[in-house]
Amino acid sequence: MNLEGIFVWLKKDKHSISIRIKLAAIKEYIEGSVSYKRVAEKLGIRHCTQLKVWVKKWLSGEAFDVRGEITNPLSGRPRTNFSTVEEERDYLKAQVDYLKKRYPNLIKEKPLESEITMK
């Protein structure tokens, strides 16, 4: 099975590898009599141990990578006891600032009504 044409576009310095490439590498290893190292070298995978992990997960039916799942940044034990209103305000402001930095593309500032009427 010749997969070299598929991987021409894959740069060696690229850290993420698509699921299509992972499956092709696994298929080539399982169907052929080539070592992990040879398949990894041929397809430009940095380390053959990564291919071993993919094959092991494939054979056991596990997911390859679950890092893409969104986690809740506010998870954990919530702080409910504040000694003053100001302390609670500062805590909530810090959360808002953190979320603005973490997800900048979600910020949609609405123009003030005074700005709308001036135009």
From TrEMBL:
Entries under Pfam families matching the protein: HTH_Tnp_1
InterPro entries: Homeodomain-like_sf, Transposase_8
One Gene Ontology MF term: DNA binding
Annotated GO biological process: DNA transposition
Name the UniProt record assigns to this protein: Transposase
Organism per entry: Paenibacillus baekrokdamisoli
